[in-house]
Amino acid sequence: MPRSQLMHLAIVASLGTATPAISQAAEATKPPAIQEELWALPVSLPTLAYVVRPVGEGPFPLVIMNHGVSLNVQERAFFPLVEFRDAAMWFARRGNIVVAPTGSGYGAAALDAPERGHYSAFFSKIGNCDNPNFRDAGLAVALLDKWIIDYMSGQKLITPNSALVVGQSAGGWAAIALSSQNLPSVKAIIAFAAGRGGRVGGKPNSNCAPDRLVEATADFGRTARTPMLWIYIENDTFFGPALSKRMHQAFMGAGGNAEYHLLPPFGSEGHWLIDSADGIPLWAPLVGQFLERHP
Predict the structure, then answer these.
(1) 54, 167, 224, 261: least buried by Cβ within 10 Å?
(2) Do the beta carbons of residue 99 and residue 40 sit within 8 Å?
């Protein structure tokens, strides 16, 4: 398929332009100009994706960014195109093509209107809290990541074996699930506030079957060897420090490979760190150092 057919919608914006008066030294250190686009990806489950990338033909290293999950139909219908635009731009300015897929059943694909016979395909549910299936819910989104990597590789749009997968909340849990697959195409994985089953009934620090979540984390760790960076925040009321430390201990104890960092409180709810431009100075040094160790 020609590249011109990949983008079903026109470029949304092109950010940054060269300035002729800039000195050669300044030009050499200037971040690349980037552009934002909306793509329709013809993978096994057709998917809309926010894409931000350097201007030019590439190929570029790939970054996939997974968003979290909402169990509320109306919230999914009004889900933003991208939750972490500033974070995505941070990665793009480092020379990466960033693909942030919109999960099935979100935004324009949220067609749940049972009274009219409309039902959207919303996967990665964990089931009943009495018997949650955390493992398969994570693997479902991890499979979408694999499809995207395979598709982008087939189109010659990315440099081989360069993919970095980043996820937040349930998207971070999917990233942990993906680590258990040890894909040669994935060089490293970063999980922000990762987990499932947080804030049962909207109550802070109330997790759905935390012991089962820890067990599922250990299950992934048994086969996970891809380098990972886990970032949590002290005032995260979805996956607090005690739970995230248990998850990390279980993952590492089973043989997994993950750095763990607990950042100080951020705003009124640390779970949304990556969603805020103000959070970048807090996590960027950790991420930058991690990527230098895993180029």
Answers:
(1) 261
(2) no
pLDDT tens profile 178-208: 999 999 999 999 999 999 998 888 899 999 9
With both helix axes pointing from N to C terminus, report the angle between 170-179 and 134-154 in degrees, rounded to the nearest 10: 70
Structure confidence at residue 32 (pLDDT): 77
Return d(Cα 139, Cα 145) in angstroms, integer. Answer: 10
Using CA atoms, how far apart are residues 261 and 192, in angstroms rounded to an integer?
A: 10
> What is residue 264's DSSP assignment?
P
The amino acid present at 1, given as its one-letter code, is: M
Displacement of CA 149 from its chain's centroid (Å): 13
Helix (H) or strand (E) holding 258: strand 258-263
End-to-end Cα distance, the chain: 30
Q: How far apart are CA 123 and CA 33, in angstroms?
A: 36
Total-model pTM: 0.84
